[in-house]
Amino acid sequence: MSKGTVVLAYSGGLDTSCILVWLKEQGYDVVTFLANIGQDEDFEAARKKAESLGAKKVFIEDLRTEFVEDFIWPSVQANAVYEDRYLMGTAIARPCIARRQVEIALNEGAQFLSHGATGKGNDQIRFELTCYALYPNVKIIAPWRIPEFYNRFWGRKDLMEYAQKHGIPVPVTPKAPWSMDANLMHISYESGILENPKSHAPADMYLMTKNPEDSPNDPDVLELEFKKGVPVKVMNVKDGKSKDTPLEIFSYLNEIGGKHGVGRIDIVENRFIGMKSRGIYETPGGTVLLKAHLDIETFTMDKEVRRIKQGLGNRFSELVYNGFWYSPECEFVRHCIAKSQENVEGKVQLSVYKGQVYILGRESPKSLYNEELVSMDVQGDYDPCDASGFIKINAVRLREHNRLHGFSGTKQ
Amino acid sequence: MSKGTVVLAYSGGLDTSCILVWLKEQGYDVVTFLANIGQDEDFEAARKKAESLGAKKVFIEDLRTEFVEDFIWPSVQANAVYEDRYLMGTAIARPCIARRQVEIALNEGAQFLSHGATGKGNDQIRFELTCYALYPNVKIIAPWRIPEFYNRFWGRKDLMEYAQKHGIPVPVTPKAPWSMDANLMHISYESGILENPKSHAPADMYLMTKNPEDSPNDPDVLELEFKKGVPVKVMNVKDGKSKDTPLEIFSYLNEIGGKHGVGRIDIVENRFIGMKSRGIYETPGGTVLLKAHLDIETFTMDKEVRRIKQGLGNRFSELVYNGFWYSPECEFVRHCIAKSQENVEGKVQLSVYKGQVYILGRESPKSLYNEELVSMDVQGDYDPCDASGFIKINAVRLREHNRLHGFSGTKQ
Amino acid sequence: MSKGTVVLAYSGGLDTSCILVWLKEQGYDVVTFLANIGQDEDFEAARKKAESLGAKKVFIEDLRTEFVEDFIWPSVQANAVYEDRYLMGTAIARPCIARRQVEIALNEGAQFLSHGATGKGNDQIRFELTCYALYPNVKIIAPWRIPEFYNRFWGRKDLMEYAQKHGIPVPVTPKAPWSMDANLMHISYESGILENPKSHAPADMYLMTKNPEDSPNDPDVLELEFKKGVPVKVMNVKDGKSKDTPLEIFSYLNEIGGKHGVGRIDIVENRFIGMKSRGIYETPGGTVLLKAHLDIETFTMDKEVRRIKQGLGNRFSELVYNGFWYSPECEFVRHCIAKSQENVEGKVQLSVYKGQVYILGRESPKSLYNEELVSMDVQGDYDPCDASGFIKINAVRLREHNRLHGFSGTKQ
Amino acid sequence: MSKGTVVLAYSGGLDTSCILVWLKEQGYDVVTFLANIGQDEDFEAARKKAESLGAKKVFIEDLRTEFVEDFIWPSVQANAVYEDRYLMGTAIARPCIARRQVEIALNEGAQFLSHGATGKGNDQIRFELTCYALYPNVKIIAPWRIPEFYNRFWGRKDLMEYAQKHGIPVPVTPKAPWSMDANLMHISYESGILENPKSHAPADMYLMTKNPEDSPNDPDVLELEFKKGVPVKVMNVKDGKSKDTPLEIFSYLNEIGGKHGVGRIDIVENRFIGMKSRGIYETPGGTVLLKAHLDIETFTMDKEVRRIKQGLGNRFSELVYNGFWYSPECEFVRHCIAKSQENVEGKVQLSVYKGQVYILGRESPKSLYNEELVSMDVQGDYDPCDASGFIKINAVRLREHNRLHGFSGTKQ
């Protein structure tokens, strides 16, 4: 008798194929789910593989549009960056995938969810917190944290043997000496030879961006149009080519950014579980968007609103990195950030060249920029004498402090 | 009879030359002060000019080393960036200059300080807050905020006429259609034709960095060594050239960064006085350092210490931008940040190419990175089962929330 | 010929009566405006006085309900407290009054607004920032900052003489040796003999609260019902008396709080202009509400949402204290805080006795409190083993830190 | 053969006595440790009990002075309060006790630590994080999280039976219908009949404070003297009695605070593990100190330093509540807070009466309060005209916002 139904996040690779078979061995009915979030994959081959390995049902779904609209766009509004550098391409994909997986489980009456994430990483947390948040009574099966599983499959060799024994097709090409995770937003590389933080990444590792040294000698110039803090149109100024749906816009930014080698970083980051890990990321379109959004946001948003909003954006980034996309606090923060974006509207011109994005200019019907007010040549509605009082009052406190304590500023 | 002595921040240019003469006209004895903080200037010509215009005393001083050690280094420790992009090359130069100007005033028994900053900008504030903090009883004369002065000198033509009348040498080359401020850390460009936020900056405007399109086709690879969060050595990996004093290190980073077109930004920023202004900056060495410091800091600092420290760093940036370098709170924040840097030590390798800085690897005797702990291949002192409990407990709250309110995550 | 029309915030007292006459002397038409925000005042006498002194038009308006609904309620939602203690009864009244004053000015076609606030205080700022925000082209006349005025009226004696000369009724009772500001929310006392921060406040100074030593020996027990973070009903548990409109609820809380001597504080606070001042406040109803709201909020709101919301609440308090109620950032913060209050709903029981408020219990249909989950006696849906993993993972970072640096915790 | 030595945090009560015997049953040598942190306890009886139950070694140590100096004083400097109300008497005691327990374990060569904290609470976390931080390789035995233990001892009846069978003295008085934790700083009450958040706490529950209704009708007036943010002397103004060592000062504040019923709160709080729990606390001396420290701190500390410091204090409170006293970030925060306290010095007079603390006045040689500057009667070194410019410049942004967006402030 079946122990019940488990919906397995299935990639088609060796690991999750073995997990599929192993779960069946343990007495579960296995439904597989493979999300298309923009990774380069032979989805039909994966379907056949899952079926041939005994999956009760196979779901393969294109989530690319909702990935862009529901996950990338809010991150753009937030200027979401973890620890000052990482744009979180993986972190925002997990809740997108897990959300659909929960829906399938609910529809299929499955009590169990399973995945192939390892026990030291962030992804297990992001995946499972989403599942618990959306399906509180679910039971999670995480084989890489179950001693009977991980003690049996100590290394890749054990998986290969198991695969051969159970008719699981064994990969013919050797595994890369690192692991990677790819989606529409980015590719991440970690582990293996990259674990030594001192060693340089191989030049041929990158799949999504050209090596800047090999990228074109001519920049592309883009005009990005924003409404409510998200792009509604991108236009290539040279050839007039333009895109205006979320998926097309983002894909086009990936294309241009990738062509010019934009968005590569090599960092050591702090995982939620408290260890430092080295990760290398390429996020071409996301990097272009971050720069453009920063520009139009500062152009149109009040200074003090922006200060508060940036604090919320930092909080958003931590929450998302740690797996709390579906938490009350992250929903609250997203609501507040979205509110702040109501007037973030206008066009940004930028050039993309040799790994870099250069902002060239911007315009907006909603800008708080007042050319006359700021001008050095005309006075506008501004009395310079006011600045004297402003400075004097700001100095009251500083002078009082000096009166009592002196200052270490001047050398004697 | 003299109204007293005024120490004037003197640049040698048309504006402050006219101010010098005007102050004398008003009945003051004028002492001029010109700081060498790395700008490209004919200091001897400026001395002669000041003397010929009747300065009672002329001070020209090389502050470059203290600018690097006392102002740039703390900013590096803080990862100081204003509004996510501006590295504040001007903001940190003002207190450096004003500090010395106050010392001169105290030594010379001058009751007045004067400067040529305009009435709409940040610099007047940065300058004067430093003066009031260090010399609370000082009187400030800011001609561009005095109606008798600014109504008389409405435009450049008025200054020219005044100059001719008073024997002030008139510049023979036409003024650039923008204003700029240069020092060791950066050059800023604003005003004039740049006031239209949509118009692109002219390609030939930049003086400190090569246009990336014209920069070398070969990257330079540097190794930067840090102690207590500041660089103590830079080495060019290709030719073995190295520098190890603060001023030499920073100048070399400027040279390499400038050669490869690193550190250009075009932004609209929010001035302290509440108006938006468009500024273009090039900060070659500072940009290299920011990237390298971010890397070594995350590598060596505890995650949660860093979160708190980054909050302080953001506060530091706002304070410095607004002119509060010499304030009790900024001194407090600098103390805390310096404390956080005690173990920020190690070497970062990076390449500089076509406007971009790429981190290649890092090593440190003080790193909290534990290759065994994080490894995918060995378990280290880590039990993956613990992660299950960690996730379950983190989910307690999320599940309770769902129990009561449900979640908007799943679509029906 | 008239210089134009000025709307003067008129209190009926000596100062603003003199200002009224002085403004007329200066050539303005003067419209007076007196807001009833709950202070104890003979409004009809004030009307007659203004008319007799030559006011072109006299507005006296009851703003009590909008003061409670539009200003006190959002402050309750925010748990608004400045510098950990001050509930800001004056700070929230200023924008309420100034808002109406602006409306009158716009309706009357007045280009000028005037008030009697002093040049060292916060109120001038709160008043004027509201005016500039709502009526950007307004001109403000602040006599206590105009040398011709303040040099003429150096002390109270000068005002008295001026009054006598111009037929302004002179107060017959001697002025209290401190100044006060009263409204529905609080009375503040400052200046005069209170300026010495060491001297104790006289026991007979307080007008809104009983001295706790003289208050009843029996507590009152109230039940406060909240919806969306604001009270919708208060019931006295002993006598069953209840109130359910905003103004009645708040007035009743003042009555009960005042009767039991609740809400007195004696503090030194930091004014926006950077000086420290000593203030004594009594805020009976507001103090009861703060305690009750804190209780129901923590009971019903997710922990992490509340952390973020409290940060916004602190920001709100600073903004309001400094006079930025009508600023884009304060509007933004209010929106976010209101969003957080959607489920802050339920009943709190509390007793009020001898200056103190004691929370006794609470209940809510929206509570995230789960008695079974937290129980020591039943397990609920909770596996204690999970806590081991939770702790171990939280310790990963601490152990790594010890590994590298050791800890100063243990003594040798 | 012994499995090794375990140091057990032993209270002398039924639970930890059973754990002692059970650990021996499991094959461990058991060393017991009982800390005197001010709770009311028969320490000698506990020693004999532990010895009679087979403890290999019994440690009973007076940690009261180090509890005050190393844990309560830093909390006073931080104004440490969790979720706006809880003074964390339990949270700061755990690391104090665990620190000594680790030292004993290291001295005794024990590889194991054990405690009787439950699996749903905060204390297990606070205890264990301290142990892991100070003794990274320690193994923790938490019986209430071990299924063999907690399934065997399902209720108190099971413990009683086990006790009788193993010669453990059984308590003769019935257990109170709640649990409590007492130390020098506070007593907490929770669980049992208190788990219903609506039910009122019994009046006779409190052991450390008088019921305010039964407290004296005469206030006590104290003068508290601070240096570097901690009290160095307390004097009773009426009888001249004074104390000047940390333990005596704090004990005396407990005595006076307790006599007048100060420091009772009834709250629902958020535990680190994500559940809400109801707790009732009485913290007499701590509450007096919090109020006095807030007063002298605001009196002597620069406004903006204090803003930053309060942010750090909030962070400190969260860290301590969650058990991270011995973490790199909490050490960092303590360092920064201590730095901020350098000039927090002076005397505060206050009265204590019927559950409330009233600040009466304060003085300090380090105060930034400037009576002349703030005076309404003299001008001091202050020009009121400056305020006009200050306000106008602060309004620039607000007027620009109105120019573009209008404001919702005025009703139409």
Automatic annotation (TrEMBL), chains A, B, C, D:
<dbReference type="InterPro" id="IPR048268">
    <property type="entry name" value="Arginosuc_syn_C"/>
</dbReference>
<dbReference type="InterPro" id="IPR024074">
    <property type="entry name" value="AS_cat/multimer_dom_body"/>
</dbReference>
<feature type="domain" description="Arginosuccinate synthase-like N-terminal">
    <location>
        <begin position="6"/>
        <end position="169"/>
    </location>
</feature>
<dbReference type="GO" id="GO:0006526">
    <property type="term" value="P:L-arginine biosynthetic process"/>
</dbReference>
<protein>
    <recommendedName>
        <fullName>Argininosuccinate synthase</fullName>
        <ecNumber>6.3.4.5</ecNumber>
    </recommendedName>
</protein>
<dbReference type="Pfam" id="PF20979">
    <property type="entry name" value="Arginosuc_syn_C"/>
</dbReference>
<comment type="pathway">
    <text>Nitrogen metabolism; urea cycle; (N(omega)-L-arginino)succinate from L-aspartate and L-citrulline: step 1/1.</text>
</comment>
<dbReference type="GO" id="GO:0004055">
    <property type="term" value="F:argininosuccinate synthase activity"/>
</dbReference>
<dbReference type="InterPro" id="IPR048267">
    <property type="entry name" value="Arginosuc_syn_N"/>
</dbReference>
<keyword id="KW-0963">Cytoplasm</keyword>
<keyword id="KW-0547">Nucleotide-binding</keyword>
<dbReference type="InterPro" id="IPR001518">
    <property type="entry name" value="Arginosuc_synth"/>
</dbReference>
<keyword id="KW-0597">Phosphoprotein</keyword>
<keyword id="KW-0835">Urea cycle</keyword>
<dbReference type="GO" id="GO:0000053">
    <property type="term" value="P:argininosuccinate metabolic process"/>
</dbReference>
<dbReference type="InterPro" id="IPR018223">
    <property type="entry name" value="Arginosuc_synth_CS"/>
</dbReference>
<comment type="pathway">
    <text>Amino-acid biosynthesis; L-arginine biosynthesis; L-arginine from L-ornithine and carbamoyl phosphate: step 2/3.</text>
</comment>
<dbReference type="InterPro" id="IPR023434">
    <property type="entry name" value="Arginosuc_synth_type_1_subfam"/>
</dbReference>
<keyword id="KW-0028">Amino-acid biosynthesis</keyword>
<keyword id="KW-0436">Ligase</keyword>
<keyword id="KW-0067">ATP-binding</keyword>
<dbReference type="GO" id="GO:0000050">
    <property type="term" value="P:urea cycle"/>
</dbReference>
<feature type="domain" description="Arginosuccinate synthase C-terminal">
    <location>
        <begin position="178"/>
        <end position="399"/>
    </location>
</feature>
<dbReference type="InterPro" id="IPR014729">
    <property type="entry name" value="Rossmann-like_a/b/a_fold"/>
</dbReference>
<keyword id="KW-0055">Arginine biosynthesis</keyword>
<dbReference type="GO" id="GO:0005524">
    <property type="term" value="F:ATP binding"/>
</dbReference>
<dbReference type="GO" id="GO:0005829">
    <property type="term" value="C:cytosol"/>
</dbReference>
<dbReference type="Pfam" id="PF00764">
    <property type="entry name" value="Arginosuc_synth"/>
</dbReference>
